[in-house]
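Sanity check

After download, print the first record. It should look like this:
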Amino acid sequence: MEPKVEIKKTTINRIGGYLHRVVPIADKSGDIISYALKPLMLEFKPRDIMQVAVGCTILTVPVALTEEAWNLGEFLPNLNIALVALFSILMISVFVYFNFYKVTLKGYISEFIKRIIGTYLISLIISGVILTLLEKCPWGIDNALAIRRIVIVAYPAAMSGTLSDTIK
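Expected structure tokens:
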């Protein structure tokens, strides 16, 4: 029977300004011979904001150019538009949780919420800017229609922005 080896627990340390999970690697005797570093993307930093913005743009442009998106914004009931917005936030939340915070949510709940809200707001802003440039947001004439179209286009934008945020 081999002796029981106690391996030290992993820790979270800031290295070069970014959080990393530090995992000790031990030999058979239990002596630590090295450490493995895994970057943790728990903080929503300016680099992440830019990644989300670029990712949002990837799907905002083609969707904003479709007449179907404009018509959906015009004819869908308000309840459906609200549900699209809630579904967007739910999908961002689930994706972000399982890709960034599943193991380390405790202590980082505010960062989790900031990443979700930030991602959705960025997708709304990018969608609004592009639709306004295409003159499909009738600001001052029908603000409700403008917002409805933005919410429709922001759904795929938020998904691509969330996905691009996973790139390290």
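If your output differs, re-run the checksum step. Summary of this record's structure: The helical segments are 46-64, 67-75, 78-101, 109-133, 143-164.
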